[in-house]
Amino acid sequence: MLTIILFILLLTVIICIHEWGHLIAAKAFNVYCFEYSFGMGPVIFKHKTKETQYSIRAVPVGGFVSMAGESDGDEAYPDVIVPEGRRLTDQKPWKRIIIMLAGVFMNFILAWVIFSLVILNNGAFAESPKSVVSTVVADSPAERAGFESGDRITKVTSADGNSSSIDTYTDLSIFMATSKDQQLTFQVERDGSEITLTATPEYNDEEQSYFIGIAADNTNVHAVNFFNCWYYGAKEMGMITSLLFSTIISLFHGFGLDQLSGPVGIYNATETSVSYGLTSYLFLIAELSLNVGIFNLLPLPVLDGGQVVITLGEWITHRKLNEKVKIGIMGVCWVLLIGLMIFATFNDITRLFS
Fold it and tell me: What domains does the chain contain, in order, with CATH numbers?
């Protein structure tokens, strides 16, 4: 029961923070806002200010903000008289773009603050070492491939054609985790020359990860205080953001589709993080908030990023996109997103029984 409550809280906080960003930006530009809601379904509590109703609804999952000029908002409040010039559609394009991106911005702020405070609580920040081989494990795939101490790995390519530039051991570990037991081709710098080595990672039951048998120099550990935790929080956020973008690009190329997770996977991750304690749970919230922000930047019309692209296009061409065309594109996008969610859920269920 505790896991269920924390799972619902996690999703609700992330979505409500996102919608709160839209609300703040809309009010800053004097856009009329009908309602800001915490949760979905029937209203169980509401407080009306001069014009905006703040609600708590019966189903504590997610939330929303209704603005004048959005079809959903106008349809839900047909009797409200909106003052001239205060609809979202009345605003200049740059203002609409800021309002659309404000939710993503708030997701990023939430992630940054949590990352920073978790690192502050830890009291130290471990920086991943550069991808330079310090030691080669005896009788390992790396030794058989011909790796030597001092080699610097710059790029790795899997048997299915997926590739990634490598700068740190974290980059390498992530790539091997997604490539599993495929043969990998490594571009390596050795004594000023570039050579190519091939090795197939082996699964380590004790570490529950794939490895090739190389070790790095000692990790650089930095002491953290209240003043520098924000820098290290941003650094952690940048590393995870880079990983997420790499993952999205790989998915568009057809790589790593079996790694997609949906609500079931998020629930399992919540259960695992809760078992490790509060900081692990908070870290998961930060990661998912970052995920939601980046996902919303995708140029799909049903997402904030897609709305920004449409607004920019209309701004540049001085022509409105045909409404029927827009509705058609949005319909197709919804079908694709629902299909993706079903596929991700199928992955989650398959992993549960594997």
Answer: 129-218 (2.30.42.10)
